[in-house]
Here is the input.
Amino acid sequence: MTGKEKNMSPALYDSFIADYYDESPIVRQRTQDVAFYRDAVRECGDPVLELGCGTGRVTMALAQMGKRVTGLDLSERMLEHAARKRAALNKEERERFHLVQGDMTKFDLGEKFQLIIIPFRPFQHLLEVRDQVACLERVRKHLRPGGRLILDVFQTDAERMHDPIHMREAPLVEYRSHDGKHVRISERVAAFHRAEQRNDVEMIYTVEHPNGRKERLVFAWPLRYFFRYEVEHLLARCGFRVAAEYGDFDRTPIRDNSPEMIFVAEPGW
Here is the structure.
C-alpha cells in the first residue's frame, strides 16, 4: 500500500540517480547498517518508521524479519523502485510493509511507532535548522511512549570542509550494470559554504551503453554536515534525551577517526 501527500514539490532524487542507485557498489556494499537496524528492531520492537527510505534497502530488510514497517520518502521515482521490491515479497510481508510519499519535515501519518529511524544521510539534506527542528518535532509526535529514534549522520572530516583538493574530480567505483552498461562514478566538492555548514557536492556518472553510446550524468546537491554536540543540542531542543551514541555500526564509541555518528534518542517525557 502506498500513500501520497498533496501539493508536493519535486524531490532531489527524482532524476537519473533513482535508476542507478541500487546497483551502485557504494550502496550495495553498505551492509553493516542493515545488521545494526535489524538488531535495533529486535531490541525496540515494531512498528517501525523509516524516514528517507529511498528504494527500500533498509525497510525491506526489516519487513523480511516479520516486522511492521512504513517507509516514507519525498521522491516518487525512488519509491517506484521500492514498490517493485515490495511486490516481490510474499503476501504476509507485503501486508506489513507500507510506503508513503511525504516530506520528512511535515508528515502526519495518524499512527505512532515504537522505533523511527533515519539511516544513511537523509537528515543531511535538511539544510536549515528550522527544517531539522520540524523533522524532529514530527518524529516526537509519532513516537509511542518508550519509543526511540535512531539518527545516523557521518562524522565530519575537517579537511573536506575547506581543502581545495576535494574540488578535483576523484574516482570512487566502477561497475557493469545488469543491462550491460559500464558505469564509472566519481565525485567532487563544487563549493564550500562553511558559514552554512554545507558543501555543494557532485557525483558524476560516466556511462557507456552496450551500443557504444557514452554520456556523463551529474547528480548535484547541497549536503549539510554536523558536529557531535550540535546534534546533541538539537535533540535536546526538540525534547529528546540521548540514550546512546556510536561511532560506527559495531557500536564502538565516537572517536576522532569514527566514520559515523549514530544517536539513539528517547523523548524526555
About this structure: The chain is about 25% helix and 35% strand. The two ends are 33 Å apart (CA to CA).
